[in-house]
Amino acid sequence: MLKDLQQECEDSKQAREDMTAQLREAERRMRVAENEAEQMRETVESLQTIRRQLEAERDELEEKAARVILQGLCNRNN
Question: 39: exposed, middle or buried (C-beta count within 10 Å: 0-12, 13-18, 19+)?
């Protein structure tokens, strides 16, 4: 009976240690995932900034092209 109780205690201790190790690994994976998510958020923000800059450049080029076309049409008519 005492031997059974000692074995049960050892089994419980091992189970607790296993659970603790699993918890630590889960916490480590969670930190890694959080860091990756933050990096992705920063990348998205950078890409959105670049997209806005490119859209502004496109709009500016479209306006310049329209002015050139209008000038060409005005010069043809004169």
Answer: exposed
Report d(CA 5, CA 3) in Å as an integer.
5
CA distances for 49 relative to 8, 44, 64, angstroms: 61, 9, 23
Classify residue 1 by its DSSP letter.
-
Half-sphere exposure of 75 (CA within 13 A, CB side): 6
- pTM exceeds 0.85: no
Mean pLDDT, 10 residues at a time, the chain of 78 residues: 90 97 98 98 98 98 94 80
